[in-house]
Amino acid sequence: MKIRNTILTLVSIALLAAFIWYADSNFDSYKIRILNLCAIYTILALSMNLINGFTGLLSLGHAGFMAVGAYTTALLTMSETAKQQNFFLKPIVAPLATITLPFLPALLIGGVLSAFVAFLIGAPTLRLRGDYLAIATLGFSEIIRIVFTNTQNITNGPLGLKSIPNNTNLWWTFGLALVTLILIKSLIDSSYGKALKAIREDEVAAESMGINLFQHKLIAFIIGAFFAAIGGGLLGSLIGAINPIMFRFILTFNVLLIVVMGGMGSITGSVISAFAVTAGLEYLRVLDESINLGFVTIKGIPGLRMVVFAGLLMVVVIFFKNGLMGTKEFSWDKLINFFTSKKRFKKKEVGQ
Amino acid sequence: MLKIEDLKVAYGGIQALKGINLEVEEGKIVALIGANGAGKSTTLRSIVGLVKPYSGSITYHGEDLSKIKTKDMVRKGITLVPEGRRVFGNLTVLENLKIGAFYRKDEKEIKKDLEWIYTLFPRLKERTWQQAGTLSGGEQQMLAVGRALMSRPKLLMMDEPSLGLAPLIVKEIFNIIQQIHKEGVTILLIEQNANVSLKVAHQAYVMETGKITLQGTGKELLTNEDVKKAYLGESVHG
User: How many domains are there within chain A?
Assistant: First the structure.
């Protein structure tokens, strides 16, 4: 059974690779961009789900971590001349001006830096619970944004960074989304993952079972921040220009929306929801344009798609109280059982 | 193995424990009974370090317990079955039990213990894959006990295991407590239900408003006139 499942997983990864290979050369840039965004939001949703869904910490600092990742990646990958063009008000600080790194090391450094920031912020704030933690992390994310607005010689302040090299492509985004998926999935399945879920369910009981609450919360927070920064770095490189305004708390809520819609505590849910929300918002764009129904023509109302989208969200919230997937996960066994259960039922009848 | 000497605890200005002495000998079932607000739970909370006493000492095998953190108590062999069960509702029965063995690394022994718990509570075995939150109250209590046993405790402390359970289920739980005791686990039982707990206890203490007013063997207290009047009513002969 295990071998069968591994084979199925490998086959689907190969299929995904084939799809990316096909899409990379045949799809138009609009579709490729949507796919890229889907994969990036998958990374962001997974990292937030680890903190909010699996460990049960209501953290709203994601935009801050993404900003750290995006700025680090951008500054480390931009060429010397590009930096000179960007920093015309105040020259960039000495060591950063000349450093140019390849994409992957830049992303990883961004992740590590963000993880370090998460450690600094997590050590005092993870002793808080519920709403208090949410407020503290939200404040942190705003502080990061304001610091970035005011450090003119490092981040170029409110002017932001332009002409960031477009390293992001489908291979990077889907590859890193897959890596994130596998790493977080194996973390959740390990004994660490069990401890995280126990903390989410009942802190007192978890502690009396010998689980170190603080240490586990901090680890989840740091890993979440690491992947948030990777997502932020990819996003910055995809768009090509970043500024502090991009990383307002509304960005955190976009990710939170994906996580809640997919199901707090379901990896599968986060992936599905990241794709559905990102692509859905794009495909609802027809609503903004004028629609010709043959007998009547509806004039386009800009913003109508957001109204419809909000309505859809409410439907999800009403009918799926715990998000689309709740805490359930996809597994090959379940899928195969679903298709073969009828047959087995018949066999049982014959047997009796 | 556990010794409490002259323990005094105060919440703000109010004294919850006014100097209690209590000893749990190895291999015995010790019951601590008393009405609401007598200080039973405070005693338990000070043992596991959730409340700081302002005077007195708690020692476990001669070691000062106030220096040990709550999360490290399990490693010392002290496990608590918390009041109100507190099972992990969204996790399966099996996951709950596995978290009980969280600090242990001996996979083979863990498997053995899992089988042992399934023989103690056959009902849990039937519900291995069910979410703990969907179990009945009695089953949740069984799961809470089973989860605590997965940590291989030497001293098992149970806070009100009969709380909110039907009399038949209470009987079942107390039968299992005796069975666990036979396997060599020392048990400290905190209960309001004096009748059942005195029947199984070797040694028992009666608490009233922060003091221990009576102590003796379970049988002695069961026939004690004061205890009968205050806690047992007429049902003792029934």
Answer: 1
In terms of Cα–Cα distance, which of B93, B149, B82 is closest to B125? B93
* Extents of the domains making up chain B: 1-77+154-161+169-238, 84-152
Please report residues of A whose CB lies closer than 8 A to that of B48. Answer: 208
Closest residue in A to B150 (Cα) is A209
Give the residue from A209, A15, A176, A179 showing the smallest Cα distance to A103. A176
What CATH number has the domain bearing residue A41? 1.10.3470
Q: CB distance A210–B91 less than 8 Å? A: no
Residue A343 pLDDT: 55
Is the CB of A322 inside 8 Å of chain B's CB atoms? no
Three-state DSSP class for residue B80: strand
Q: Give A134's pLDDT tier (boundaries 50, 70, 90).
A: very high
Q: Give the pLDDT band of residue A342 (cuts 50, 70, 90).
A: low
B163-185 pLDDT, tens digit each = 888 999 999 999 999 999 999 99
B contacts of A204 (beta carbons < 8 Å): 82, 86
Taking 50 as the pLDDT cut, the residues of chain B under it are 236-238
Say which residue the tokens 């002017």 belong to: A159
Q: Does B71 touch chain A (CB under 8 A)?
A: yes
What's the pLDDT tens digit per position in B20-44? 999 999 999 999 998 888 889 899 9
- Measured between CA atoms, the residue of chain B closest to residue A199 is B88
> Scanning every residue of chain A, which has its alpha carbon at the shortest distance from the alpha carbon of B100?
A209
- Any domain includes A208: yes
- Residue of B148, B42, B171 whose CA lies nearest to B87: B148
Considering only CB atoms, A195 lies closest to which of B70, B90, B102, namely: B102
> What is the Cα Rg of chain A in Å?
22
Q: Is B5 on the interface with A (CB under 8 A)?
A: no
- Average per-residue pLDDT in chain A? 89
Cα B189 to its chain centre, rounded Å, is: 4
Host domain of residue A157: 2-248
Q: Which residue of B has its CA nearest to A326?
A: B90
Q: Which of residues 258-277 of A touch B (CB under 8 A)?
A: 265
- Give domain B1-77+154-161+169-238's CATH superfamily: P-loop containing nucleotide triphosphate hydrolases (3.40.50.300)
Chain A residue numbers touching B87 (CB-CB < 8 A): 202, 205
Looking at residue A328, what is its pLDDT? 84
Give the CA diameter of chain B. Answer: 51
Is the pLDDT score of A62 beyond 90? yes
Q: For residues B206 and A80, what is the distance between their CA atoms, to the nearest angstrom?
A: 80
